[in-house]
Amino acid sequence: MKELQSKSISVPLRADVARLTLEASRRAEAMGLLEDGIARSDVGAIRQLANRVRGAGIAASAADLLNNVEVPSPAEIARLLRTMIAALEASPVPRFEWNGVARVLGADELAPLLNVSVSSLKRYQSGERDTPDPIAARLHWLALTVGDLAGSYNDIGVRRWFHRKRERLGGRAPLALLRGDWDPDDEGPAQVRQLARELVSLSAT
To answer: Where are the domains of the chain?
Structure first.
C-alpha cells in the first residue's frame, strides 16, 4: 500500500476528483462504512475508500479496477468515483447503517422516523432480527440525508433540522413528511432529500 500511495503523489488529480472523493466519503461515513471520512484525495486514499465500500458488497467492480491499474488517470478515477457514489445511493446496508445513523439520531428520535417501535428498532440494530426491506430503505434514506446535512450542521443542528418548518415544504417541517409507512420515492421524502442535498451544493461553492 505504501508503494501505491507514493506513486499516487505524482498523479495530477483534478478538482472534480477531490469533490467526488468527498462526496463518496461522506456517503460511506453516513452509512457506517467508515469511522471517519477520507481527508485526502490521492490515489492511495481513494483505493482505501473503495476497498472499504467493497467490503460491504458495494461497487466491487470499481474497487477492482482501481486496484488493477497501477496509476489510473484522473478521468478514470472520476468515472469510478461516480460509479461508487451511484452504487452507494442505491444500496441499503442496514447492518452498517444502524450504527452509522445512531451516531446522530437516538432510538427515541429514530423509531418514529422509521415507523417502528423502539423495542423492534433495538432488535434490528442488534441483529437479533433481520431488518425488513421497507425499513431498510427508510434507514438508508435517513443515512444519506444525515450525511448531506453533516456537511453544514453538527449533530445537534442535524437533529433540529428535521423539526424546523420550511417554506419550500409548504410551511411544514421535514419530520411531518416522514410519517407512517413512507417510501423514499414518495413526493414528500423526495422534497426533503432535495433540500438536504442543496445544502451540499451551497457548501461546495
So the answer is: 2-89, 94-204
**67: exposed, middle or buried (C-beta count within 10 Å: 0-12, 13-18, 19+)?**
middle
Q: How far apart are CA 101 and CA 120, in angstroms?
A: 16
Question: Are the CB atoms for 149 and 140 separated by under 8 Å?
Answer: no
Work out the widest C-alpha separation in the chain, in whole angstroms: 55
Question: What pLDDT, on the 0 to 100 scale, is given for residue 41?
Answer: 65
Question: Can you tell me the mean pLDDT for 135-160?
Answer: 94
Kindly indicate the confidence band of residue 9, based on its pLDDT and cuts at 50, 70 and 90: very low
Take residue 67 and report the three cell numbers written for it: 486496484
Tell me the H-state helices in the chain.
2-8, 15-30, 43-55, 60-68, 74-89, 94-102, 107-114, 118-126, 133-149, 155-161, 187-204
Task: List CB contacts of 113: < 8 A, sequence separation 6 or more.
Answer: 105, 138, 142, 162, 175, 178
**What are the Cα distances from residue 57, in Å, to 49, 96, 139, 170, 177?**
13, 12, 18, 39, 31
The C-alpha cell that represents 200 in the structure block: 451540499
Global pTM? 0.85
pLDDT of the residue at 171: 95
Q: How many CB atoms lie within 10 A of CB 46?
A: 26
